[in-house]
TrEMBL record:
Substrate binds at residues 89, 182, 212, 297. It comes from the Archaea. Binds 1 zinc ion per subunit. GO terms for molecular function: 5'-methylthioadenosine deaminase activity; metal ion binding; S-adenosylhomocysteine deaminase activity. CDD domains: ATZ_TRZ_like. Keywords: Hydrolase, Metal-binding, Zinc. It is an enzyme of class 3 (hydrolase). Its EC number is 3.5.4.28, 3.5.4.31. This is 5-methylthioadenosine/S-adenosylhomocysteine deaminase. It comes from Halarchaeum acidiphilum MH1-52-1. Its cofactor is Zn(2+).
């Protein structure tokens, strides 16, 4: 067994207490071996002046949309998708998606994210990029029925399931998969009723957008006489390992329903604010015992992939919406970005404890904007930036050391993404 000791820092424990201590990890099993007074390791990673925390989990993303960062802003969801995003996405190639995903991975790793969920296209390219970069991901080919005849729509579902079956457990288990119908309004009911059971048989979870905007909720209620999550439940889409993105416009009965089903919700506050979708009822979800995770959504609606920003946004939006400064406190958002995310995605990570996956972010607290440290959790929620991350470790491997990504050539990735984004947009015009 070869061990790595992350030494000389303070450690954030699962109960969010902080003590001085080391973290010893086994780079073969990729697990944490000991925390505190661990003794020596074969190698050491310096954490002096730092807080060692669980790696952040971005539970809803469209990674390759980094290519569309700043391409179309300041519009509501439906208009933005139909006028700007979907026309340009129709021009995407596998190579574009590889380039955009690698750009996302650089940003994720440098800001301390060790795991993410991605719903997009050309997913074998995404899986390869994740395998090479060394982080953990749950990946799904996104199914959209809009503008497709039945044969094409069916082929899309088949592709999602084929990818899910083939790549589950890829990259030594760091890549796991899911079946990802885009949303309850963009995918046909009959095909959902056919393919949801097939996903269950394949043993993969479901992930989909739900209750993001009023414009998405109202037609379902008008046409079906039931709420969207009641419809999803009727189709069998609310399982214990499933997780829905957004859940902004859920009513009390829907919140109680997904709490009962054990389905998790991914809160995407920056995207919800930017598209003016609304404010998700996070205090109600948490009161009912729903697992709440955090996601950035794509970089085109955020416009970055920094989960420290997302924690701050979640706390601020939650307080503002409830007119209550205690509505979404610092502890809640730190928990959502770590343990909540890992639980939603089904990874045995998100907590620093022996036996858990060694997915860690080492945050440099020796910065003016993080001084003094009255309360480390407060600093993480309200004052830390992604650029404060010094080292990132996933599965026991050091992926970022002293702010340098070791598994990707950042300059080459940026250059490729710049060219690909320029050519993509030119093709779409
Ligand atoms: C079928 S792959 C994913 C699909 O979702 C689009 N998308 C990006 N952001 C959002 C959002 O906030 N709500 C709904 N759909 C979104 C993305 O552009 C892809 O087409
Ligand atoms: Zn999304």
């Amino acid at each position: 067994m070869a061990t790595l000791r992350i030494a000389g820092g303070r450690v954030l424990h699962p109960d969010l207490s902080v003590t001085e201590g080391d973290v010893l990890v086994d780079d073969e099993s990729g697990e944490i071996v000991a925390v505190g007074d661990t003794g020596d390791g074969d190698e050491t990673l310096d954490a002096a002046g730092c807080l060692v925390m669980p790696g952040l989990v971005n539970a809803h993303c469209h990674a390759a949309m980094t290519l569309l960062r700043g391409y179309a802003d300041d519009k509501p969801l439906e208009t933005w998708l139909r006028e700007d995003v979907w026309p340009v996405e129709a021009e995407l190639t596998d190579d574009d998606i590889r380039a955009g995903t690698e750009l996302a991975l650089v940003e994720l790793l440098k800001s301390g994210t060790t795991a993410f969920a991605d719903m997009y296209f050309s997913m074998p390219e995404v899986a390869e990029a994740v395998a090479d970069a060394g982080l953990r991901a749950r990946l799904g080919h996104g199914v959209v029925g809009v503008g497709k005849d039945e044969d094409d729509a069916r082929a899309d579902h088949e592709e999602s399931l084929a990818f899910a079956r083939e790549y589950d457990g890829y990259a030594d288990g760091r890549v796991q998969t899911m079946y990802t119908p885009h949303s309850l309004t963009t995918v046909d009911e009959a095909l959902l009723r056919e393919y949801v059971p097939a996903a269950r048989e394949a043993g993969v979870p479901l992930h989909f957008h739900a209750n993001e905007t009023r414009d998405e909720v109202d037609p379902i209620v008008d046409e079906r006489g039931e709420r969207p999550l009641e419809y999803a439940d009727d189709v069998g889409m609310l399982g214990e390992s499933d997780f829905v993105a957004h859940g902004v416009h859920s009513d009390a009965a829907e919140i109680a329903l997904i709490a009962e089903r054990g389905t998790a919700v991914v809160h995407c506050p920056a995207s919800n604010m930017k598209l003016a979708s609304g404010a998700a009822p996070i205090p109600a979800y948490r009161r009912e015992g729903v697992t709440v995770a955090l996601g950035t959504d794509g970089a085109a609606s955020n416009n970055d992939l920094d989960l420290f920003d997302e924690m701050r946004d979640a706390a601020m939006l939650g307080k503002h919406a409830a007119n209550d400064a205690s509505a979404v406190p610092a502890e809640a958002v730190v928990e959502m970005a770590t343990a909540g995310g890992a639980d939603a995605l089904g990874f045995d990570a998100g907590r620093i404890a022996a036996g858990k996956k060694a997915d860690l972010a080492v945050v440099d607290f020796e910065a003016a904007h993080l001084t003094p440290t009255h309360d480390a959790v407060s600093n993480l929620a309200y004052a830390t930036r992604g650029s404060d991350v010094k080292h990132t470790v996933c599965d026991g491997d050091v992926l970022v050391r002293d702010r340098e990504v070791l598994t990707l050539d950042e300059d080459a990735v940026r250059e490729r993404a710049t060219e690909r984004a320029r050519d993509l947009v030119a093709r779409a015009e």
